Amino acid sequence: MSILARTGAFALAKGRSVVTVTATVWSVLRVALRRRTWPRTTRNVLARQILFTGFEASRFVSLLAVAVGLSIVVQTQVWLAKVGQSQLLGPVLVMVVIREVGPLLVNFVIIGRSGTAIATELGNMKISGEVYLLDSQGLDPFTYLVVPRVLGAAISIFCLTVVFILVSFVSGYLSGWLLGANPGPVDLFVDSVFRAVRPADAGNLFIKTIIPGMTTGAICCIEGLSVHTAVTEVPQAATRALVRSTIALFLISAIVSAVTYL
Fold first, then answer.
1. Is 245 in contact with 215 (CB distance < 8 Å)?
2. Does residue 20 lie in a domain region?
3. CB-based burial label for 197 (10 Å; 0-12, 13-18, 19+)
4. Is residue 17 domain-resident?
5. H-type helices in 137-198, by residue range?
């Protein structure tokens, strides 16, 4: 019975966590649609969040995309040419890079780079009393702290994923041409990729970037604001945010792939 009780308590705790994150994401969407939510102060927080999460991470994401182009795209060109199936280049690249690798890697980068930073920043603000100070001055902490960070993370992940896909394809084609992999004319390469993209792929890409991005932002904000009084709670909150965001990413990606393609 004790094992059953612990199992039930664990399931209930995880269920409450899922409900809390879902409610936070829904509240962000609902509040973001109100015009009074976006005074200049909140817009500035959103702009800074996109600058930090999106623009400043673009170099690293581009380098990662070049590595993917050198490995996956070039190898796909070489092996499909060897077996005489070069016409499958577009479908294979779409299936590997656009559907799975691109969204997953970009989400990983943002979780590790910006997700932990959000949790740490909000945790320190909670300990220093800045959150209570905002509330006492008439600024809603949810509107000022949570909404722009959640939306900024989602927008940044979507834009960075598009950049990742474009850079990986361009670098893969150029690398294959320089290495003598015979990628063919550039117009045929582009046409092969575009012909393989279906409406479901566009929807899959959008959902796998926006929903995990908002979920990551919500989890990191929740963990950061859950800190109480001890400074040692901040790194613990950042670790929990990293682990839970990664688990949520895998679950959401698996569910979206199953619903879209099975």
1. yes
2. no
3. middle
4. no
5. 141, 147-178, 186-196
Q: What is the pLDDT of residues 227-250, one digit of tens each?
A: 988 888 999 999 999 999 999 999
Asked whether residue 5 is assigned to any structural domain, the reply reads no
Residue-wise pLDDT for 27-64, tens only, equals 999 999 998 889 898 999 999 999 999 999 999 999 99
Query: Whole domain around residue 113: which residue ranges?
Result: 37-261
pLDDT of residue 89: 65
SS3 77: helix
What pLDDT digit, counting tens, does each position of 204-225 carry? 899 999 999 999 999 999 999 9
**Which residue's entry shows tokens 């609902």?**
30
Sign of CA dihedral 71, 251, 110, 43: positive
pTM of the model: 0.90
Environment class of 160 (CB within 10 Å of its CB; exposed 0-12, middle 13-18, buried 19+): buried
Task: Decide if 148 is inside a domain.
Answer: yes
pLDDT digit string, tens, across residues 74-127 = 777 676 666 666 666 667 777 888 888 899 999 999 999 999 999 999 999 999
* Helix, strand, coil percentages for the chain (3-state, nearest 5): 90, 0, 10
Which residue, among 210, 229, 244, 214, has the nearest Cα to 16 in the 3D structure?
Answer: 244
